[in-house]
Amino acid sequence: MIQERRIWIEGTEYRLLISDEPQALLAAQAAGRAVLGVEDPAAEKWTMRGIPYVVPGWEEITEELEEMVLRRRLGFPWIIAASDRLTIREFVKADAGQIPVEECTLEEEHFRSEEAMEQYIRNQYAFYEYGIWALVEKEDSKLIGMAGVTAPGEKIFRNFKLEPLPFQEQWLELGYHIFEPYRGKGYAKEAAAMVRSYAHDVLSARLIAVIHEKNQASRAVAESLKMKLIPERDPGCAAAILPQNGTDTQWQNGHLLYGECCLSLPDREDS
User: Fold this and answer.
1) Helices H, strands E: what count in the chain?
2) Please, what is the Cα angle at 257 between 254 and 261, to 5 degrees?
3) Per the UniProt record, which residue ranges are transmembrane (predicted)?
């Protein structure tokens, strides 16, 4: 079966071909079209090789999925969330030239290269469906910072008492960086709250954040999300246990780990 969907994005109509016939999908893809495959449950072997997006049945197709597949094919960024002041979206290659040199940390340096940005978009977003996203001020469409989630490093799991999560849930590390001219306006707290909602509702994730003890602004953002300080595993480490009076734990030259513990995530429709 072959179906064609008409999808409007930013005022322009595009078309998506959906089918459970591999040859029809490959032919449409070779012609430059966006395609979505549907598995044949009766097939004895995998027949959808070369099709980037495949669902296990027709009932799994949603309007949101259709738009996402189309945006991936066209190179349009996926919109993560929006408020009255901000849009959080995936980066596009052209964003590399808008990030001030003085605002880049070593971890963020690759975002200033169009080539590296293009690789990040292709490898991170298309594979994981999450990453670091662009923060855009709605009023003048300016890039004012970045925020998002990444997979935590193994050291965090070795050093801290992170509770085991139920099946299909995951820990993700929250990050946010507002460029200097736009600080002090509440953008970090606003963006972090939207990222948290997306992490809960779409990614089935709980958040952690590594923050220096002297960074009171970032600590206030984490605490506004009801994140708590997480103690280290090794009781022999100096200042490693979270004291009863609630003072800070120490890690890596004064860095702290905040996390969403004892949290019940909403049930996902596709779970």
Assistant:
1) 7, 12
2) 155
3) none
CB 53 within 8 A of CB 36: yes
- Rounded CA gap, 85 and 142, in Å? 11
Beta-carbon contacts of 21 under 8 Å, excluding residues fewer than 6 positions away, are 1, 2
Cα(231)–Cα(222) distance, integer angstroms = 16
Residue 236 has pLDDT above 50, yes or no: no
pLDDT tens digits, 118-139: 889 988 998 888 999 999 999 8
Q: Encoding tokens for residue 84?
A: 């009255």
**What is the 3-state composition of the chain as percent helix, strand, coil, each rounded to the nearest 5?**
30, 25, 40
Query: What string of DSSP letters covers 11-51?
Result: TEEEEEEEES-HHHHHHHHHTT-EEEEE--TT-SS---TT-
Buried b (16+ CB within 10 A) or exposed e, 145-176: bbbbbeebeeebeebbebeeeeeeeebbbbbb
Q: Which helix (H) or strand (E) segment is 220 a member of?
A: helix 216-224
Query: pTM (2 decimals)?
Result: 0.81
Pairing of strands 170-178, 205-212: parallel
- Non-local CB neighbours of 261 within 8 Å, separated by 6+ positions: 163, 206, 228, 230
